[in-house]
């Protein structure tokens, strides 16, 4: 034990059978939390939409961009307000430590894009500094410069946060905001999709009538092989169907302890 460390009061040491029984007991609560999270996401999909009437301008790698441009032609957009600018701890070598940790855990965006959703980071640093930072840290997230009151208008001028938007043609609507400790869980394709108005767009979800939905697993692909509107790989359908059947059998006939 290192000097200054206190002795840990560890849980009891048990047999494999006792450990499995303890896990099964806790699993009941874990599944309840999962179902509650699914119900919360279903409520998000029924949140009212707020029309974005104001015009916003960003600086991007290709020049000026509007909020609509940030969608990159997709239906949904998530904008994370990252703190990288003068006055932030780490400037100019680094972005905020917390925002940087978040950027490090962002999953491959091809999977999110395959669900018609774009993720963009936004800061007040100039594009030259953002390009340098991305190269230094190995980040490939689209990242724009805020030039107006976007951060103040959407509640992220003083603290980080993810704002979700959806578009209907050229009309843009704000659908949700996750900030504070809620941001800790962000980074996976699932955490992003769960905060959007359309959700994961899978048939098992409780969504309003007419929302786009398809069978779970079937839309998945290797990140470099997504083709818009392409039919799923028949072999993958076979494999995932077998997996679903096995999950169902296990749920109906739990293994005895």
Distance between the termini: 36 Å
CATH architecture of the largest domain: 3-Layer(aba) Sandwich
Structural class: alpha+beta
**Which range does the strand content fall in?**
15-25%
State mean pLDDT (0 to 100 scale).
Answer: 95
CATH fold-level topology of the largest domain: Glutaredoxin
Provide a descriptive summary of the structure in words.
This protein has 257 residues and is an alpha+beta fold. The chain folds into 2 domains: 50-194, Glutaredoxin (3-Layer(aba) Sandwich), CATH 3.40.30; 215-251, no CATH class. Helices cover 33% and strands 17% of the residues. The protein is built from 8 helices and 8 strands. The protein has helices spanning 16-44, 67-70, 97-104, 109-113, 127-137, 150-153, 189-194, 234-252, and strands at 50-51, 57-60, 63-66, 76-81, 117-123, 143-146, 161-168, 171-179. The protein has an 8-stranded mixed sheet. The protein is globular. The mean pLDDT is 95.
Layout of helices and strands:
Blueprint: H1 16-44, E1 50-51, E2 57-60, E3 63-66, H2 67-70, E4 76-81, H3 97-104, H4 109-113, E5 117-123, H5 127-137, E6 143-146, H6 150-153, E7 161-168, E8 171-179, H7 189-194, H8 234-252
Parallel strand pairs: 4-5, 5-6
Antiparallel strand pairs: 1-8, 2-3, 2-6, 4-7, 7-8
List keywords for this structure.
Glutaredoxin, alpha+beta, globular, 2 domains, eight-stranded mixed β-sheet
Short description:
Helices cover 33% and strands 17% of the residues. With 257 residues, it is an alpha+beta fold.
């Amino acid at each position: 034990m290192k000097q200054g460390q206190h002795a840990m009061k560890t849980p009891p040491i048990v047999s494999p059978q006792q450990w499995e029984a303890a896990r099964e007991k806790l699993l009941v609560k874990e599944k309840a939390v999962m179902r509650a999270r699914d119900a919360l996401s279903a409520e998000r999909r029924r949140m009212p939409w707020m029309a974005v009437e104001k015009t916003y301008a960003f600086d991007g790698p290709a020049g000026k961009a509007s909020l609509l441009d940030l969608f990159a032609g997709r239906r949904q957009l998530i904008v994370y307000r990252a703190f990288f600018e003068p006055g932030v701890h780490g400037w100019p070598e680094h972005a905020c430590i917390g925002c940087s940790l978040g950027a490090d855990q962002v999953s491959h965006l091809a999977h999110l894009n395959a669900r018609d959703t774009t993720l963009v980071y936004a800061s007040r640093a100039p594009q030259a500094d953002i390009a340098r930072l991305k190269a230094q840290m190995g980040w490939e997230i689209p990242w724009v410069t805020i030039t107006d009151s976007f951060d103040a208008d959407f509640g992220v001028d003083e603290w980080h946060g993810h704002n979700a938007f959806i578009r209907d043609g050229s009309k843009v609507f704000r659908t949700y905001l996750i900030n504070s400790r809620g941001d800790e869980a962000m980074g996976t394709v699932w955490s992003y999709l769960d905060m959007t108005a359309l959700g994961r767009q899978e048939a098992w979800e409780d969504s309003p009538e007419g929302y786009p939905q398809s069978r779970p697993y079937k839309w998945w692909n290797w990140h470099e092989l997504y083709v818009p509107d392409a039919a799923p790989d028949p072999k993958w359908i076979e494999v995932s169907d077998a997996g679903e059947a096995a999950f169902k059998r296990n749920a109906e006939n739990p293994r005895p302890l």
